[in-house]
From TrEMBL:
<dbReference type="Pfam" id="PF07992">
    <property type="entry name" value="Pyr_redox_2"/>
</dbReference>
<dbReference type="InterPro" id="IPR036188">
    <property type="entry name" value="FAD/NAD-bd_sf"/>
</dbReference>
<keyword id="KW-0274">FAD</keyword>
<keyword id="KW-0560">Oxidoreductase</keyword>
<feature type="domain" description="FAD/NAD(P)-binding">
    <location>
        <begin position="12"/>
        <end position="276"/>
    </location>
</feature>
<comment type="similarity">
    <text>Belongs to the FAD-dependent oxidoreductase family.</text>
</comment>
<keyword id="KW-0285">Flavoprotein</keyword>
<dbReference type="InterPro" id="IPR023753">
    <property type="entry name" value="FAD/NAD-binding_dom"/>
</dbReference>
<protein>
    <recommendedName>
        <fullName>FAD/NAD(P)-binding domain-containing protein</fullName>
    </recommendedName>
</protein>
Length: 363
């Protein structure tokens, strides 16, 4: 039974950040409370579908979702949050939104496209850039760089793709045997993989890029697939300034509340939860935070009755390799080819993620 059903005044829940974690917690609580979602973008993006949208821009119609589509009962504020006090959140555009419960879910910093239309145009431009190039340089051999190289190799097999990675192996966040399988797949598709080197993308001369070891790479264009910083720098000017660790992550307790703040939660990539930063785990954080806020709204006072988040201890990841194949890291083994590909690479979990937000899998 909701507070409104009980005749009580609904509490105000403010969620900062409409990414994987923030979108889900806002969606889950929108009928329980007066939910406001503050996001600098007007949309939620299913990140694990983003590389497919670069080779097939129409794919983004399902994976880039306006917040208003899944939040009919919440207030959406399209602006960056710039300050937090004990009672309110202030935005760049000058709004002041009061909260009873606050959820900070600002993950990683984003760049560019603030509207859904802009984002879809960005994918169209990236597609044109890929289509027009004969040779493409990809910088970064984490999941983003590997998935992009694989998407291009699968859809445009005639293009020369070179992937340069600073580390000694691809996909360092998972096991060595999975890395090797990804490397073998890429090289079998004629992608040239250069490991242990960096490349300065700002100084190509006539389409020639130079790596740290002096090797040259000819490419008509490049894509940077390196990580972005945590979206927490702005918290240094707020009441949460002492809640950041040395890496800029927000320190949380086992209930996902920010240490020392009983009504403020932090979830997703921005937290110091000791586990890999992955979207499916951010979704689990969102479920725990939503459960705990519901309990607190209902008047639960005993902390022992709150849900506890247990960090994931075993690596579990699937990196798609084009439309049919993938490499998967399971707790005790890694697997490459069609079987893991059948789990992820066709729809990239877009239908499943849309359903989780209460939307139809298709548009
Ligand atoms: C290309 C790519 C592929 C990935 N593939 C996978 C995968 O296959 N499987 C998997 O499990 N994980 C995957 N991940 C990781 C996954 O996307 C992240 O773990 C997940 O997005 C974290 O969710 P989050 O809500 O914490 O942060 P994010 O999704 O980063 O969302 C942060 C939100 O906060 C907003 N924001 C930031 N600062 C402010 C501010 N000051 N005010 C207001 N809003 C703000 C941003 O606009 C954004 O909406 C992938 C990531 C990328 C980039």
């Amino acid at each position: 039974m909701s507070m409104a059903d009980l005749g009580g005044e609904k509490k105000s829940v403010v969620v900062i950040g409409g990414g994987v974690a923030g979108s889900l917690v806002a969606k889950t609580l929108q009928n329980e409370a007066n939910v406001s979602l503050i996001d600098e973008k007007e949309y939620f993006e299913i990140t694990w579908a983003s590389l497919r949208s670069m080779v097939e821009p129409a794919f983004a119609k399902r994976s880039v979702i306006s917040h208003s589509e899944y939040l009919p009962c919440a207030k959406i504020i399209s602006s960056a949050a710039v300050d937090i006090t004990d009672t309110d959140v202030l935005t760049k555009q000058g709004s002041q939104i009061s909260y009873d419960y606050l959820v900070v879910a600002t993950g990683h910093t984003q760049n560019g496209a603030w509207t859904k239309t802009d984002k879809i145009s960005q994918y169209q431009a990236e597609y044109e850039k890929i289509k027009a190039a004969n040779s493409i340089l990809i910088v970064g051999g984490g999941p983003t760089g590997v998935e992009l190289a694989a998407e291009i190799a699968a859809d445009f097999p005639a293009k020369k793709v070179t992937l340069v990675h600073r580390g000694s192996r691809l996909l360092e966040f998972i096991g060595e045997s999975a890395s090797k399988k990804a490397l073998n797949w890429l090289t079998s598709k004629k992608v040239e993989v250069i490991l242990g080197q960096s490349v300065d993308v700002n100084s190509p001369s006539d389409g020639v890029y130079r790596t740290s070891d002096g090797k040259t790479v000819d490419a008509d264009c490049h894509f940077l697939c390196i990580g972005t910083p945590f979206g927490s720098a702005w918290l240094k000017e707020t009441i949460l300034k002492d809640s950041l660790d040395s890496r800029g992550r927000v320190m949380v307790d086992s209930n996902l509340r920010i240490k020392g703040h009983n009504n403020i939660f932090a979830i997703g990539d921005i937290t110091d939860v000791p586990e890999l930063k992955q979207g499916y785990l951010a979704q689990e954080h969102a479920k725990v935070a939503a459960k705990n806020i519901t309990s607190l709204i209902k008047g639960v006072e005993d902390d022992h009755k709150l849900a506890v988040y247990k960090p994931a201890t075993k690596a579990l990841a699937i990196v798609s390799l084009g439309r049919k194949d993938a490499v998967a890291q399971f707790p005790c083994l890694s697997l490459a080819g069609r079987i893991p590909g059948m789990i992820k690479s066709g729809d990239l979990f877009v239908g499943k993620t849309r359903k989780g937000l209460g939307l139809k899998p298709d548009v």
